[in-house]
Predict the structure.
Amino acid sequence: MFSMNLQDKTRRDVLKLAAAGVFAPSLSGWMPLLAKAAPAGGKGKAKSCILLWMDGGPSHKDTWDLKPESKGAGEFKQIKTAAAGVEISEHLPKIAGIMNHGLVVRGMSSPEGAHARAKYYGHTGFREGQGGVTYPSIGSIVSQEVGKADSPMPNYVAVGGRSFGSGFLGPKHQPLLITDPNSGLQDLKSAVAASQLDNRVGLLEQMDKAFHREYGADSITDHKTTYERAVKLMQSKEAKAFDIASDATKSKYGTGRFAEGVCMARRLVEVGVPFVEVSLGGWDTHQDVFTRVKALSGQVDSAIAALVADLKDKGLLDSTLIVWMGEFGRTPNINSRGANPGRDHFPRAWSLAMFGGGLKGGQVLGKTDKEGASVAERPTSVQDFLATVCELMGIDHTKKNETPSGRPIQIVEKPKPFTKDVI
């Protein structure tokens, strides 16, 4: 995390480094001290959220909302689940067994049909470029509103891929990025003895103090809090949560980075991290949709079933909200591209699933028409969904945060939360 040999650096070197941005906040940005969380305005009891992001846009008609009698039904059959009347894809059999803890939202709709814009919208509830503001993601909102300022652990972790960050909330609510969960958080262990580390940190503090006294650079303060939190994390017992190698339950989650990421997410929730996002790419199935969705469903099936079971056994399911979603769905009809047809982007009607978090399990909210092409009952916008996540997390979604220019921005604009229907 910190490899600069400070004893070889003169004041002139420090000035050069500052000018080059070395003392700016870290890329992930989570390390600066967090502002105290505002009092929660919601009534939910969830303390953590695990967002399982299906990058590329999963096909609703081949996962949660099969239409066996429709024109573009596809190859998959639907199966019964542990929730009476709820049927899902045959390639999600383990999830079917824990569906009594889950909620499927089949009436989702979004105005964005391009990947980048839809991902931004799904994470923030705002359209990209709207009002000339960079908006915070739901992970950063959770970090600000319920994160712990004095925790040695980050309040927002993104596993398996870069996620959307803190926007105008600033670097203190950026996610800590874990590219490879099997490798954990690299450079966590100090390469020197504890006494040497303390000496080096002390020397750096002296240099920062003198530099700040003479030049008054805010970046020095940011850098100071950055390395203080890095050192605190290195010395904390909670940091073991990033090491999944010896986890006795790891094999239940399946194989591959997504399975490892979900296992890590559970470990992070156990030590109090309030928001973890785990990504699984490959859902942009313009071609070969059935082969690819079958394989992806297998990864999702084992991981979610193991996650729900482990959280339930540990007494953490009611306090942990699990969300499975992507940026949109896929077309109800199958395209005719080449020998391996697929489904194209479709934001008008799609599905997501939620587990735990105080929800009444075994439910379906909303309904699409017989082709899965439009929402027929209980339409749910992205804002409705995000406001519901806030309520389940005890966050007042009507609260307004100020941009650096002093402009008030409501956490979620004009939503109709559906919590009253499902808790």
The longest strand covers residues 102-109. The chain has two domains: 1-30+187-242, 44-184+244-422. Residues 336 and 342 are 8 Å apart (CA to CA). The longest helix spans residues 289-313.
